[in-house]
Input
Amino acid sequence: MNRPWYYGIRNLWLQVGILLVADLVFLFLFYFHPVEYQDGLSTLFFAFILFGLNLILGVSKKNPWWRAFVINGFLLLLGVLGAAGLSTKLHWNYWHKDYSIEVNDSTFELEMDMKEKAFTICFYEKPYDVWYYRGCFMETGYNEYSLFVDTMYSVKKDLFHFSFRNDTLINFRPKPIKIERTSIEVNSFFVDE
Output
């Protein structure tokens, strides 16, 4: 008795679904750890090894899941690369606060590294970018920081200390400068400190 063609497709999707659930658990456990242990070349090498193993299992045709392993190989390759990128982005956004403001063709950016307690202020005017100030900061209250400029590594030497409070730079210029946060806040559940 011949079975209709859609039974084979339904079984294939079920098999791929089972492998995808296993892949997602693997990717979650493997890639949500400190990003210092990852680099792009190792991740690419690892992704191609997993891709190759799935293809070898699929091409051997000794098991009834061979099509599912071939499809899973391609999906796992994309999954490993995507998970590594997501993990890196989550760690960056957890440890950094990025702010910027655009005026005409110019962009003013403030990047604060919460782990190192350091900041950088850059000014971009197409096609140039200028690195103005660099230094360290101290948290004085909730969303209030006191920033100290390191004149040794700064282009401009006319500023030594200013404040940052509630998305506003104070004493940076005669008038306070309101800037917007461009990075997202990340829950500590996703980042292993």
Notes: The radius of gyration is 25 Å. The chain has three helices and nine strands.
